[in-house]
Design a protein that fits this description.
350 residues, 11 helices, single chain, Rossmann fold, seven-stranded mixed sheet, Quinone Oxidoreductase, Chain A, domain 1, 2 domains, 26% strand, alpha/beta, binds zinc ion
Length: 350
């Protein structure tokens, strides 16, 4: 059997090469996954653009799905076998630190984007390699007719599951979602599934049209109207029970707080580039008893929930897949992914 495999390697700023690398070998407690699809997340796009700094060479990719082609001798065959299709979770948590052991793998104390994972001999998150050797604790079974490309979106969906659960949305509440890039759109869909009235704040016409096809009806268009005033008009002057900001612009974090109601919960989901400080009124937070919260990453429990939502067809992610590209088209795919008009771009690995 060939002991090399293909991988897309980030070799420098705006430079990705397809190279042959040593094929990983699973340990006795691991499975070998042949990756089929890997989506290009904003994080990888920022590595490509040189915004997120990493040491090169680097293997990006962390939104991945594939099939098991080998199982280690200690793997329970009642659970996992060759031919099982799986989504692969983030490989960067250690499983041993206190955070991992209390179920907060998303905050692993040993977390690094630049560790060696998946049995690879190049640093990075591994998803743009043809094969990964992974622990059974990091794989999640694909069921029914769910495709590899849909399953590749389990990881981003899991991050939104974490955010929406943190917001603790209740039946009948009003939720404003700021931004409907893919993560904002997932927030809107999950908030509606939680039984909320969802208002979307979005200037991009294409995105608004897509959300309309998904039966969202209430929009704030910040380019055309004062978003805060409009949010108050739509909520009888009260503001929204929950405001979810998914756009990495500091000014919008400030506006999110101003759009929230008495006892409002505000989630800052996106990361902010640049991280410009905002001004908030401490008295307003005090008097209105605002809960201002951040949400980043996801834990294994969120991944399990996201996998169920996909397998059981509660959530349809197909409208948010822009296109599938072959591995050797990755530079073009990356440029397409960076265009804010486009939703997720997915690489076909094998
Ligand atoms: Zn991601
Ligand atoms: Zn850990």
């Amino acid at each position: 059997m060939k002991n090399t495999c293909k991988a897309a390697i980030f070799a420098g700023k705006e430079k990705i090469e397809i190279r042959n690398i040593t094929k990983p070998k699973p340990k006795s407690n691991e499975v070998l996954v042949e990756l089929k699809m890997c989506a290009l997340c904003t994080w990888e796009q920022r590595v490509y653009q040189g915004v997120n700094k990493v040491e090169f060479p680097f293997i990006g990719g962390h939104e991945q799905a594939g099939t098991i082609v080998e199982v280690g001798t200690d793997i329970d065959k009642a659970l996992w076998n060759v031919g099982d299709d799986v989504a692969v979770g983030l490989l960067t948590s250690c499983g041993e630190c206190e955070k991992c052991r209390i179920g907060e793998e998303g905050n692993c104390e040993n977390f690094s984007y630049e560790s060696f994972v998946g049995g690879l001999n190049i640093r990075g998150m591994g998803g743009l390699s043809q094969y990964l050797a992974v622990s059974a604790s990091k794989i999640f079974k694909i069921e029914g007719s769910l495709s590899y490309q849909e399953a590749a979106l389990t990881e981003p969906l899991s991050c939104v599951v974490h955010s929406v659960e943190t917001a603790n949305i209740q039946l009948g509440e009003t939720v404003i979602v700021i931004g409907t890039g893919i993560m904002g759109a997932f927030h809107a869909v999950l908030a509606r599934n939680k039984g909320a009235r969802v208002i979307i704040s979005e200037p991009n016409k294409k995105r608004i049209d897509l959300m309309k096809t998904l039966s969202f009806e209430e929009f704030i268009i910040p380019d055309e109207e004062n978003a805060i005033e409009r949010s108050l008009e739509l909520t009888e002057g009260k503001g929204a029970d929950v405001v979810l900001n998914t756009v990495g612009v500091s000014k919008l974090a400030e506006e999110a707080i101003q759009m929230s109601s008495l006892y409002g919960r505000v989630i800052l989901y996106s990361s902010y580039h640049p991280d410009t400080p905002i001004s908030i009124s401490p008295n307003s937070i005090h008097k209105r008893m605002t809960k201002l919260m951040g949400s980043a990453n996801s834990n294994t429990c969120d991944f399990i929930t996201a996998m169920k939502l996909l397998n059981e067809r509660v959530i349809d992610v197909k409208p948010f897949i822009y296109g599938i590209y072959e591995l050797d088209e990755i530079e073009q795919a990356m440029k397409t992914a960076i265009d804010p008009d486009n939703y997720r771009v997915i690489m076909q690995i094998t």
